[in-house]
Prior knowledge:
This protein is mostly loops. Helix content is 7%, strand content 2%. It contains 1 helix and 2 strands, in the order ββα. A two-stranded antiparallel ribbon has the order 1-2.
Amino acid sequence: xxxxxxxxxxxxxxxxxxxxxxxxxxxxxxxxxxxxxxxxxxxxxxxxxxxxxxxxxxxxxxxxxxxxxxxxxxxxxxxxxxxxxxxxxxxxxxxxxxxxxxxxxxxxxxxxxxxxxxxxxxxxxxxxxxxxxxxxxxxxxxxxxxxxxxxxxxxxxxxxxxxxxxxxxxxxxxxxx
Length: 177
């Protein structure tokens, strides 16, 4: 798929994307009493440039574009990122526990020390999660369900894999396990 340049400004329900994210963070901080949960299916987040350390738990963003963005330390627990484009994203220390990543594109993403387990990463016959050349140094995948996930040339140095289901995964040329 060809990735086009993002539009300079993106709106969701007549609100600029940055305000939608602020309302979502308020929703997270207030346990749902204030703000509003973001619904961002297919949204291109690149105009925001970075979401580092943002509280985005429960974000609904299937097929969204985060290509090359800085999401280091973001809270994405229980986020719906099915089919999302996270290629080359900086996801160091991100918390993805309970997130849905089926069919997500994470090639060359930096997931150093990310929390990925237990969650469903690669399930589904059609949606194959791609972690080709991803950096998963020290990542916690304990108990993750990752069948059929593509881990070609991924760096799993010191990754925690206890109880991880990698049945049918593409694993050739992995180093550091």
